[in-house]
Amino acid sequence: MSTMKRHLHDGAKDNLTPLSTLDPDKINDFDELLTAMGRTAFGGRSLGEALDVLQAMVEDPDCVVVGTFSGAMTVAKQSKLLIKMIDEGWLDVVVSTGALMAHGFIESIGLKHFKYDPSMNDKALFDAGYNRVYDTLEPEANFTQAELVMREVMHQLMDVEKVTHLSSELICRAIGKHLSEKYNGPGILKSAYKKGVPVYIPAFTDSELALDVACAILAKDFGHLLGDKAPEELPFQFNPFLDLFSYSKKMHGAKKMAIFTIGGGVPRNWAQQVGPFFDVMSDRLERELPARRFQYAIRICPEPVHWGGLSGCTYQEGISWGKFVPPAEGGRFAEVHADATMAWPILIKGLQNRLAKKAKK
Question: 79, 346 in Cβ contact below 8 A?
């Protein structure tokens, strides 16, 4: 047994940051709520600190902010949060799953999602044309209606503009333009088009949007699928490198970079790989290129780190890949392990409150 006597320190004298008890009677808005949460512990502190990082990234005039989104956020009726971030100029780039954009597209043409009841039978739902996403229902009729709209978009691209090479960015821009011209009401791709924010879907063919594009092609000539037509005879070529180079060019010109992530998956990884990509080009191609590191980063995701997947990967781990600026060199990160439908709305309202009060002052 050790007989060494410990010297007990005083936290205040050691300049440690004291915590504060959250007092609901002193909270009048979401800014004050998140500020108070940031002085507590656990998930509450993480969300409170995320507001400080979010404010810093959107107010930094030298910063290009990338938003990455996965999970069924539009089915879960969170689309106006993303629309708000685009409309307010808080996002300069959007990277998403195709499913999230497809369900948002359905919303933007006036179609509805519905509540699932646990007493419902999944086989009966299939027979009735209802697709279930956890506790929400997407009518198959929605996809049918959306495909008709996509045929109009693809007609414009293929027959009118005679585009020969397409990418997810170009298709999303065309959808946004069509929505702006033909439909009233809000829409993610509509806002992105109006604000000039590029939308990239790295795994584009893994989505209803891609199936709609395929149907538009096959409606003109089914031989592309089951006939003897060669791939090069398609009316256009889909080239994912157009997305990669477009995104990389935009990030090349950024003085600083920030990333705001909901979920993880392909959108997060694709957006973050810009750092290693520039390192690889500099090394293997012997080019003088700037190091690309995200200085600000926020992620809201319930995925734990111990499965080893990218969705749960910490920013600290990402530093080893050359994706983030280390905290010692000015990097500011916030990682919120939570359901985005609970944390994201609070964070956005907190930022709205904080910036509104700052503007009044």
Answer: no
